[in-house]
Amino acid sequence: MMAEEKSNLSDSKVMDKLVSLCKRRGFIFQSSEIYGGLEATYDYGPLGAELKNNVKQLWWRDIVTSRSDIVGMDAAILMNPEVWKASGHLTEFHDPMVDCKNCKSRYRADHIDLEKNCPACGIKDWTEARQFNLMLKTYYGPSEDSSSEIYLRPETAQGIFVNFSNVLTASRAKLPFGIAQIGKSFRNEVTTGNFLFRSREFEQMEMEFFVKPDETTQWLNFWREERLQWYKSLGIREDRLKLRPHDDDELAHYAAACFDVEYQFPFGWSELEGIADRGTYDLEQHAKNSGKKLTWFDSSENKHITPAVVEVSAGVDRTVLTILVDAYHEEEVKGENRVVLKLNPKLAPITMAVFPLVNRDGMPEIAEKIVETLRGEFAAFFDAGGSIGRRYRRQDEAGTPYGITIDSETLEDQSVTVRDRDTMKQERISIDQLQSYFRNKIL
Ligand code: GAP
User: Fold this and answer.
1) Burial letters for 92-119: b for 16+ Cβ neighbours within 10 Å, e otherwise?
2) What are phi and psi of 297, to 5 degrees?
3) Does 272 sit in the ligand 1 pocket, CB within 6 Å?
4) Mean pLDDT of 123-145
5) Does the pLDDT at position 145 exceed 90?
6) Which of 158, 189, 202, 277 to mutate to test the pocket of ligand 1 (most atoms within 8 A of CB)?
7) In 149-160, which positions are buried (b, 16+ CB within 10 angstroms) versus exposed (e)?
8) Residue 199 Cβ < 6 Å to ligand 1
9) Which pLDDT score, from 0 to 100, does residue 4 have?
10) Sequence-ordered list of residues with C-beta below 8 angstroms from that of 219, at least 6 positions apart, any chain
11) What pLDDT shows up at residue 429?
């Protein structure tokens, strides 16, 4: 069947269309929507939670379980406030902010041209730019005074640095080795937007790779290529991915060098992940402030050294957004518009939907049995609601790579049709061959 692609990056409405598809199909909802929502905060629905989980599982598999030199951990979100003094986040983790005096709109001063008029009201009357700390504060325990003030972590990395000695001792690791974790982070961003791209609550997948200081450049180069490759392995279009080195004036306070993996979103090239040379900054700062030794004994040199750190830091939500944007297609099929999410089968929330053509003649029972058989290995889903055309369209929008239909021929020869989401071609496969057919296709 011929399909002509209609929608691409030049379609300025792609983001709006994606937001509405995400709600319609149960990927992503606005948080507390029935109360008018909370700006830039999102909830993942049934399909979104599966997609997000698949992203995290693939990251964990590729970074932790498939490597012998990296271990995982899971630190608390709430930490002793001394951590943020030592890490420099209390004094350095801020963005410049300006307000339009006329309409009170607020902007990141480094995201707009202050020589130009306010984009909201068209008048040029800016306040002075001032620094705004991005950490979200809360109170710990029953009293609400400055002694009980703590912060929601703005990066998961510090949970790794403060546990450096614990993990080193427990896992008896040798350099180079890494510690990885996935978890929520919070930032009181001056401006948010572009759907999941910049929010105040988000999830990070971070890995701190501890190396001998003179090996930092070698490992920085290794990890930046690995990480770019990882996004390609998810099936993201290669011409929309690139590595960009940071200019000196955009480096974070802890970084000596940094590369961003960027994706070409409909709103422009933007950061997906940072791969940074954090040097010995964090371990030295925590050693100084805690009075604890955070070193590794180099037996070949017979001395204690402070390892340097190469960090890979990705956003789960940004990765989900990238996958969704990249997968979104609109095509014209036989004069009709088809919206389809061309998700990689490894990521798709539903791998195959199983459809009884009609709800009689034993077809639903056969479909349910097929679902039960495939479920151990794949995310198989039974769908009997509406015409077969409607079911295909629904599953195309959900990004389901395969549709299995039970029809009258099935009753005669125990075969079913398998429809490929992208080509819309159908093949007849014997029911007892389905498992091996999908194993060959997907695993
Ligand atoms: N530990 C280093 C670190 O946190 P970062 O560049 O500030 O570095 C790393 O953040 C990644 O976290 C970003 O590349 C992005 O994917 C994600 N991220 C950061 N701020 C975010 C936000 N406000 N909303 C969504 N994702 C965010």
Assistant:
1) ebbbebbbbeeeeeebbbeebeeeeebe
2) -85, 115
3) yes
4) 91
5) no
6) 202
7) ebbbbbbbbbbb
8) yes
9) 60
10) 176, 209, 211, 310
11) 97
